[in-house]
C-alpha cells in the first residue's frame, strides 16, 4: 500500500462522485478562465504605454494573471475535476499514477475546447476596439525567434518550457500528496509556482507551459504562431512526463504499514 493517495481528481469509484460530463465541463470552464485571464491581460493590459487610460502591467502583471487565474479556477472547480486545466498536467499526473489513463482524452478535449473558446471570446472583444489587429495574438503566442520577447532561439525556448513545466508538476504532485499539505492551500502553492516560473519564462518563450493555452493563441496568431505551436505542445508534455515519472519513482514508493 502506498503512503499517498491520488487526490488530483475525485475518484470515480465512490458513490456520488462527479460524472464524466461534470468533470468535462469543469475542465472546460477552468481552462476558459485561465486563458481568458492570462491572454486577456497580455492583449489588453500588458502592451499599454502607461499613458492616459493605459496600465502597462508588463511581464509581472501577466505572470500574476496566470497564477491568479489558476488559483480561482482551482478553488471553483478543483473539487469537481481536480483542476488540471492543462493537457501537460493531465498527462504528467497519469504518468505519476495520480490520474486514470482512461480519463486523459476527455480532459484534454475539454481543455483544448475551453482554451479556444476563451481566445475566441477575446477576439470578439478585440474586434470592437479602436485598434483591431490580429497581430496581438502573435504577440501573446509562445515560441522562439520572432515570437520570443527576448529574441531567444529554439533550444532556449524548448528548455525553459520543458524545465518550467517539470517544476510545475513537481509542485502539483508534492502539494496534493495526502498528509503533506492542507488541501485548502494547494491551489495557492500551485498558482504562486506558476507566477514564479512565468517571470522566468515570459521573456524567453512568452511562458505557456500549457498546450491548450498555446493552441488557443496560435489559431489566431498567424503563420509564425501556427508554425511553432508544435514546440509549445511538445516541450510542456515532455517536462510533465519527466516530472511525473520521477516523482512516482522517488517519492511515491510503497511503505510498510506499522502494526
From TrEMBL:
Q: Which Pfam families does this entry report, sorted A to Z? A: MIP (PF00230)
Name the keywords, alphabetized: Membrane, Transmembrane, Transmembrane helix, Transport
List the membrane topology term(s). Multi-pass membrane protein
* Compartmental location: Membrane
Q: Which InterPro entries match?
A: Aquaporin-like (IPR023271), Aquaporin_transptr (IPR034294), MIP (IPR000425), MIP_CS (IPR022357)
Where is the chain membrane-spanning? 28-48, 55-78, 108-132, 152-173, 185-204, 229-251
Can you tell which superkingdom this protein's organism belongs to? Answer: Bacteria
The principal location of this protein is membrane
Entry keyword tRNA processing: no
The family note in this entry says: Belongs to the MIP/aquaporin (TC 1.A.8) family.
- Protein's name according to its UniProt entry: Aquaporin Z
Source species: Agromyces salentinus
Its taxonomic placement starts with:
Bacteria, Bacillati, Actinomycetota, Actinomycetes, Micrococcales
Point out the gene that encodes the protein: aqpZ
